[in-house]
Each structure stands twice: as C-alpha cells, then as structure tokens.
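Researcher: I've got a protein sequence and the SMILES for NAP. Could you write out the 3D structure of the bound complex as structure tokens? I'd like something to compare against our soaking experiments later this week.
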Amino acid sequence: MDKVALVTGGNKGIGLEVTRYFLNHNYKVIVVARDFNQFEFADNEHVKTVTYDLSDIEGIPELIAQLGQIDVLINNAGIMLSLPYDDYPQDKIDHIIKLNIESPVALIREVSKQMIERKSGRIVNNASIAGQIGHPDIWYGITKAGLINATKSFSKSIGPHGIIINAVAVSPAETNMLDVIPEARKEAFKKSVITGRFAKAKEVADTIGWLGTISPDYINGSCIDINNGSFPR
Ligand SMILES: NC(=O)c1ccc[n+]([C@@H]2O[C@H](COP(=O)([O-])OP(=O)(O)OC[C@H]3O[C@@H](n4cnc5c(N)ncnc54)[C@H](OP(=O)(O)O)[C@@H]3O)[C@@H](O)[C@H]2O)c1
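Model: Sure. Here is the predicted complex with NAP in place.
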C-alpha cells in the first residue's frame, strides 16, 4: 500500500511544494485547507482534498477518524497577522492561537494514536525563525515558539513509541505571507542574509519532506534552521 501524508495547508505556498514533494516520492497526499479553487493537484488521483477550517479544534478528532491511515503528518497551515501588540483584538488573538498552535497539537494528539499502534510515523511542524528570535506580530512569534516547544515535548512522550517528530524554522520565504510584511523590513532582511534573497518555498518543502521520509531516526525533537545565516549563534 502507498504511504499517506497529511499536509495541512498543502494547497498554497510552502504547503503546495510539500504536496509536490510527497507526490514525487510516490505518497498519497491528503490536503486539508479551506479553499481549493486554484489548487493545481485538485484532480490528481493520488490527492484527496478535505475542506476544513483548522481553527475548529473540537472537530479535529472526527476529521482524523474519517481519514484512515496516515503515515506522515505535516503541520504546515498557519497565519501571520502583522498587528501591533497594543492594538490586537481578542478575537484575532484567539484565532491565531487556535490555528497556529492548538490545531497542530490536536492533530498530533489524534494522528499519533494510530502511529503508536503501528509503532511508526513521522511528524513535521512548520514553525518559524519568529519562534526563536521574536517577531513584530507578537502572537505569531509566541505561537511559533510554542510549536517548537511542543515538538520537543511530544518527542519525549510519543518518540519512544516509534514516532519521529521534528520542526523547521524558516526565515522569510517567498509566499503570499510576505504580502503583509512592509517593504522596508523586507529590504533590511535581504541585506542581513548570506545570499541576499528570501528562501524559496521549495527549499523549505525539501527540508520538510526529508524530515518526513528518510532523515536519520536519531534526529528527533529537533528544530532545523533554514535561515541563510539570519542570526549568529
Ligand atoms: N512564508 C514565510 O515567510 C514563512 C516563514 C516562516 C514560517 N512560515 C510558515 O509556513 C507555513 C505556511 O505558510 P506560507 O508561507 O506557505 O503561507 P500561505 O501561502 O499564506 O499558506 C498558508 C496556508 O495555510 C492554510 N490555512 C490558513 N488558514 C487556515 C485555516 N483556518 N484552516 C485551514 N487551513 C488554513 C492556507 O489554506 P487556505 O487559505 O485555503 O485555508 C494555506 O494553505 C505557515 O505555518 C507559516 O507560519 C512561513
């Protein structure tokens, strides 16, 4: 049987390239997102699209129960709102926390049940450099820091059952998410990295795909930097 990868937000940006990666590696791919209007793999026989708003945390157990075997979970869906810390409406805070941290944690909890039974599975969380160094969207940074921390915590609880769970932390990458970053900040960023450009979605997807397929088992509970020298260590 073909292996199955579940990719949240696998219809756009980095997630689309992750979907492409797994298709190229002969996986079946389940893509969960809200809008498949322009999704290039919508009619692909190896792709199942599931229209679902991942901020609905309560519905996640039922969502996963109906999807069957999942060998790889890629928690990719996420948003950045670029609102100032002192004018951040409570409903926006609630939404970004639900989508960026509660939903991946709920998905890990649900999908890991079947992975534990099989004593096998891989999970990759798409965090961000924002979770390591902070961010002007304070709740974006906080949720991404939480996702890195959750990766490490889960590796200790579910890792001994045969599950490999890691995160990636990319600096700005060329996707629609850059639309909400001011031009001056984008130019300043490019000056701060080694090659003077943003990451490509494919570069992030190749790293996520590697962690989701063949990376060594000993890499577990890690967060891989993809930031082109953005910060000194
Ligand atoms: N681009 C960057 O510079 C950058 C840097 C660091 C980390 N990241 C992380 O990479 C991940 C992907 O971002 P991207 O850059 O590819 O951005 P993007 O092009 O805006 O993609 C966001 C994805 O999340 C999905 N999504 C958003 N809200 C959702 C909801 N309520 N329910 C289900 N799916 C939802 C979107 O699909 P629908 O709109 O169809 O629902 C879309 O597929 C995010 O977690 C982001 O934080 C990005």
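Model: DSSP finds seven helices and seven strands in the chain. The helical segments are 13-24, 60-65, 90-118, 130-133, 138-158, 183-192, 201-213.
Researcher: Great, I'll pass this along to the crystallography team.
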